Amino acid sequence: MEHPLSQFKYCPKCGSAHFEVHNEKSKQCADCGFVYYFNPSSATVALILNERDELLVCRRAKEPAKGTLDLPGGFIDMTETGEEGVAREVREETGMKVAKAEYLFSLPNIYIYSGFPVHTLDMFFRCTVEDTLHFKAMDDAADLFFLPLKDIRTKEFGLGSIRKGVGIFLEDMRKNKSE
């Protein structure tokens, strides 16, 4: 896969074509001196359990990995905190209102959008919602359902960071039950 910085041909400040690789995560303009740092985009993932310890999963409505399992979540808007972003994404994709969002862990990811690799930092939150009985697949979700933890197969999740994150979450749940 080509490095994402190779997509940027011109300086975003002055428009010069003398926009050259500065190091592995930045480019610098030889004309105006502007340095552009390529950093990951922030994204959130919601882990929502109902009273029967079933995990809310969705089926992706769009590429990448259309038709595979996923969790509610998405990109954080410019003025949002992680907690605000995960609450908004849950509302947009499920109609559910988040009462509490607890940060658990993060994972790096590469999300292919329109053929362009977007490096993300996916932040996983354990979310408590006001009502687990009323929800509807909306936005990026084609389907939405609760799945018993014992029936979850991580290989059915289409995105790498989600597969890994669900695996970490399930392992933590198993450890907590045995304590």
Automatic annotation (TrEMBL):
Domain Nudix hydrolase, chain residue ranges per copy: 39-175
Organism classification: Bacteria, Pseudomonadati, Bacteroidota, Bacteroidia, Bacteroidales
GO terms under biological process: NAD+ catabolic process; NADP+ catabolic process
Family: Belongs to the Nudix hydrolase family.
Keyword Thylakoid: no
CDD domains: NUDIX_Hydrolase
Any one GO MF annotation of this record: metal ion binding
Cofactor list: Mg(2+)
UniProt KW keywords: Hydrolase, Magnesium, Metal-binding
Gene Ontology cellular component list: cytosol
PANTHER family: ADP-RIBOSE PYROPHOSPHATASE-RELATED, NUDIX HYDROLASE, NUDC SUBFAMILY
Protein's name according to its UniProt entry: NUDIX domain-containing protein
